[in-house]
Amino acid sequence: MRLLFLSLLCLLPLRAQTANPEESIRFLSVTSFQEPADSKNYAYLTWQAQSAEALFDHNHVVFHKSGPAASPNLFARSGTMSFQTQLNIVSALLDSTPPSLFDAAVVEPIIDDLFGDLVASPSLTLAGKISGVLQAAKRDPKVFRRLVFLSRTQPVLGLCMGTAAVVPVNGVVTTFELRTLPSGTLVLNTQPAVVAGRVTLDLASPPMIP
User: Fold this and answer.
1) What is the pLDDT of residue 207?
2) Nearest-angstrom CA–CA distance, 190 and 132
3) Minimal CA–CA distance to 176: which of 73, 20, 30, 12?
4) Cα separation, 146 vs 141, whole angstroms
5) Quick one: DSSP state of residue 206?
6) CA–CA separation, 31 vs 202, rounded Å?
7) In the chain, how many domains are there?
8) DSSP element (H, E) containing 144
9) Which of 13, 162, 167, 174 is deepest in the core (most CB within 10 A)?
């Protein structure tokens, strides 16, 4: 996990290419890892903003295509990311996150130490605790900002908050786009109109760790 974190820091200066001045506050980064459990390659994308509130309550859609940005290949939709609070969805996200990005034995003590006062009962499952903290973050921007900061070292929280995505990678070079759904959109299969960022991952040239 430490190696992954350093790779992300190395990539954070990549500024998103935007189609709308309002989106210029966002920063998109990507790194890759091979999951020992299935020997597959994955891309881990995360997006940030100068103000954490700019990320709050926004739905984002990740698209990918084979090849560099100039490739004529068409983009395909990878998935829609949004802020989650429902226990069943949070539980499903924890279950589906690759082990390289999520270690319950590490995450649970951190949640207990930093957000124990927001958890209804210490006997709750980890999914229940995270769900409770996310519900608190929905009401309190300060809690949301703390979670954004923590998600930089605990990627599974970014997946629950809709500020990160994990996408299987099959080719050597893959280009990703982060597109934004209109504010307040309820239908998650709505076609996003704004490209908030674009970044290319080349497995043959992994990011250098400083």
Assistant:
1) 59
2) 28
3) 30
4) 9
5) P
6) 9
7) 2
8) helix 141-150
9) 174
Q: How far is CA 71 from CA 162, 174, 177, 189, in A?
A: 28, 10, 13, 25
Q: How far apart are CA 155 and CA 44, in angstroms?
A: 9
Give the Cα separation of 24 and 177 in Å (integer).
14
Positions in the chain short of pLDDT 70: 1-26, 57, 182-190, 193, 206-210
CATH number at residue 195: 2.60.40.10
- Transcribe 72-89 into DSSP letters: -PPPEEEEEE-----HHH
Backbone φ, ψ for residue 171 (5° rounding): -95, 175
In the block, tokens 């239908």 appear at: 187
Per-residue pLDDT, 147: 94
**172 and 76 share a domain?**
yes
Query: DSSP label at 197?
Result: E
The string of pLDDT tens digits covering residues 25-70 is: 468 899 999 999 999 999 999 998 877 777 776 788 999 999 999 9
* 110's tokens: 């951190």
Q: Which residue is associated with the tokens 């927001």? A: 118
